[in-house]
Every structure is written in C-alpha cells, then in structure tokens.
Amino acid sequence: MARYFIIYKPFGVLSQFSGEGQTLASLFHFPKTVYPVGRLDKDSEGLLLITDDKQLNHHLLNPRFGHQRTYLAQVEGAPEKEDLRQLENGVEINVDGKMYQTKPAIAKIPESIPELPDRDPPIRYRKNVPDTWVSLTLIEGKNRQVRKMTAAVGFPTLRLVRWSMEKLTIEGFQVGEVRELEQQEVYRALGLSGFRRK
Q1: How far lies 131's CA from each of 25, 113, 153, 169, in Å?
Q2: Which residue has the higher pLDDT, 63 or 103?
Q3: Which of 22, 45, 111, 186 is least surrounded by CB atoms within 10 angstroms?
Q4: Parallel, antiparallel, or unpaired for β 45-51 and 35-36?
Q5: Which residues have C-beta within 8 Å of that of residue 134, sequence separation ≥ 6?
Q6: pLDDT tens digit string along 9-32?
Q7: Given 41, 43, 52, 131, the catalytic residue
Q8: Residue 108: closest CA among 136, 80, 140, 68
Q9: Around Cβ 179, how many Cβ atoms within 10 Å?
Q10: By three-state DSSP, how is residue 78 classified?
C-alpha cells in the first residue's frame, strides 16, 4: 500500500534523506521506501509531497500533465501591474545555460497573505526598500524558476514558500510539520480522483 506524507519543509533543509547538512531525515522517521516528489531548494520552504507511489510521481513530474503549483514570494520592491503582466505572459530565464521562455502563469498581489510561520532565520529587512508578497501559480517547475522570474522583472525574491499543489496546501502547518494522508485525500486534492494506480 502506497504511503503519502505532506511536509512543511523548513528553510535550510535539503529535499533529500542523506548527504551533508540538514536533510528530511531530521524531521521525521520516514519509511525507507518513500522519496520526495520534485524538489524545493535549500533556501525555499513549504509544501513537499513524499511518497512511494511511482505512478503519481511520474504524473506530477511529467511536463505533459502540467499541474498548478502556487508559490508565495516575498520580493524586494513593489511590483506594478505591468510587472505582474510580464510574469503572467512569460519571461526569459536561464535554464542550464540556455535562455528559456517561461509558460503562462498567474501572478497577483494577494489581498491577504495566508498565516505563515516566521522564518528562521528571518529575512534581511531594509528600512528604505519596501517588500511585497506576490502569489505566483506555475504549471512547470524549472530549477529556481520563481527566483529567476521575479529577478527578471527587477524584484529579487527574499523569501519563497511553496503554498500548494492544486488544492493540496500547507494551510495550518507549522514549519517542519509532517502529516500522513490517505491516497484518496491526496488524489482528490490533486484533482486526480479519476486517476487509477495500476
């Protein structure tokens, strides 16, 4: 029977179970068979799905089945509508040494930010430079894509939180919290209720 864990990956933790530095193994005693679906950089935080469901892993990582992932990026500066429009239409970023045009996205400045735990360590505040939260929903996941996109329009990312994948979210989670979910809950939240495991 496949197992499914949702975690709020803390800042500074690697999205792997072994290696130097702090890894996922320090958060919870996971079964030996599971692994993270996709990655979150060491300096990003938020939702990570950990499972041994190979079919689901393939489905979520295959670009053909683009699923929505929403990130909350605290950026330096105050983006205008035109900046958000650029992010939505796609910007050029460097991926593995080649220029890449990002796919259409949804970019907005949320009216209210979901309740997020404080980051440890906190971001560097600069009195004379405002910072703004931007919500960015993508259907692809290139390496450090959100950071590269906000930098491309002139607003470096200071803090990055992956908030959701489709309707699977870390709402109400504490940093480092791990919850095990049933397959049905995970599939429903990912909009895959008709998806059958072989």
Answers
A1: 33, 13, 15, 24
A2: 103
A3: 111
A4: antiparallel
A5: 72, 73, 74, 75, 79, 84, 87, 107, 108, 109, 150, 155
A6: 999 999 999 988 899 999 999 999
A7: 41
A8: 136
A9: 14
A10: coil
Radius of gyration of the chain (CA): 17
Among the listed residues 43, 46, 44, the one whose alpha carbon sits nearest the alpha carbon of residue 8: 46
C-beta separation of 166 from 189 below 8 A: yes
Q: What is the mean pLDDT of residues 74-82?
A: 96
Q: Is 126 exposed, middle or buried (0-12, 13-18, 19+ CB in 10 A)?
A: exposed
Per the annotation, the verdict on 41 as an active-site residue is yes
Is it the case that residue 198 has pLDDT exceeding 60? no
**What is the dihedral angle through the alpha carbons of 141, 143, 146, 147, rounded to the nearest 10 degrees?**
180
Beta-carbon neighbour count of residue 134 at 10 Å?
A: 23
CA distances for 118 relative to 4, 11, 102, 121, 161, angstroms: 26, 10, 30, 8, 11
pLDDT of 130 strictly over 70 = yes
